[in-house]
Known about the structure:
Blueprint: E1 2-5, H1 10-18, E2 22-25, H2 31-41, E3 44-47, E4 60-62, H3 68-79, E5 100-102, H4 104-107, H5 113-118, E6 122-124, E7 131-133, H6 137-149
Parallel strand pairs: 1-2, 1-3, 3-4
Antiparallel strand pairs: 5-6, 6-7
Amino acid sequence: xxxxxxxxxxxxxxxxxxxxxxxxxxxxxxxxxxxxxxxxxxxxxxxxxxxxxxxxxxxxxxxxxxxxxxxxxxxxxxxxxxxxxxxxxxxxxxxxxxxxxxxxxxxxxxxxxxxxxxxxxxxxxxxxxxxxxxxxxxxxxxxxxxxxxx
Length: 150
């Protein structure tokens, strides 16, 4: 699933990336540019803009909800993303690139000492070099998913 989110959905883009969704974020003001990009990249447009014109060949989901949890529930229902736990934390939350595993030694100088002592698996973004590991946020995200489903 590849999505393109409009400017007002930046926080949602980050959360979709956390869930493993290929979520690009567009700050463009031009509807035409947005539509062309969605067509070129075969993406579903997610927006809160009710005035975005419908177009053949492009799926557009207009979100009605304002709260993040409700937006995620709306997307899960609309796009069938009910079980996305397998893809959690596989994309960079900043760049949207797929993360790659790195040796603990390579993360040594880039993470806090406590993290280095308590974690074994590290991942990095090939684009921005940000380092990721399985911290307490994994449980928090799983809990949020359970709340949405329940």
